[in-house]
């Protein structure tokens, strides 16, 4: 079989003057290759791009890359399913193994004062079942992520938190606001504060809150809801210390969203000026976590279906 093209760069790049770019890690770049091979190897209905970009290495990166390069590939980069699955099993830990379950610090089966206005027995039973999901969503970063970050795309976090669930195995910025709203309803105030602590740690490290807790999210953020999270917690707890702790981070985030590439002045028809803050990802290629499917869609005829696939 012919060897596939092993270029680590994507052919789909935006203009060079598109703005600042924050490069991904060497591991993310390699996992994009793994993702592309999986995309070519499996049926599309059985392919989830996130399963491959979230893999953790069992061995060092250079050794793993060498082993991957030695696998026989077709011209389009596909591998036999048997060879590919044997390679993945030998050289990688499963996606999600870098997070471990931890008992929520302040979970109670039926907390005092839980939804006092809900009196209907059936509705209360349902609400308590939803409340019980916190025990299934509580996670902390594994010791391996802290000790060997080069083996993982997952980023270390200082304290345990809550994940959205399903294929979203890591903490996300936007989701955390709604998670905190739910935690406050469940009287889990300390867990809510812990989530804020984790998000502040990103501001301390990167200067802004990341889209999510993966190395491939370091080039973009999400709707800036950290101040709203602090406000919600303060309204429920009156915790002034949390506000004092968060204030420097909130000011830093405000500066980020008002920095040169994110701040714009819009002139309306009446010649009035309006300030606009834009997301402006610091990246000029397809998103690493979905690069295989995005690059594939860019080769399809321009249809609503192909556009939709670019955003999943």
Automatic annotation (TrEMBL):
Pfam family, one: Trehalase
Entry keywords, A to Z: Glycosidase, Hydrolase
Catalytic activity annotation: alpha,alpha-trehalose + H2O = alpha-D-glucose + beta-D-glucose
EC number: 3.2.1.28
A GO molecular function held by the record: alpha,alpha-trehalase activity
GO biological process: trehalose catabolic process
Sequence similarity: Belongs to the glycosyl hydrolase 37 family.
Protein name: Trehalase
Upper lineage: Eukaryota, Viridiplantae, Streptophyta, Embryophyta, Tracheophyta
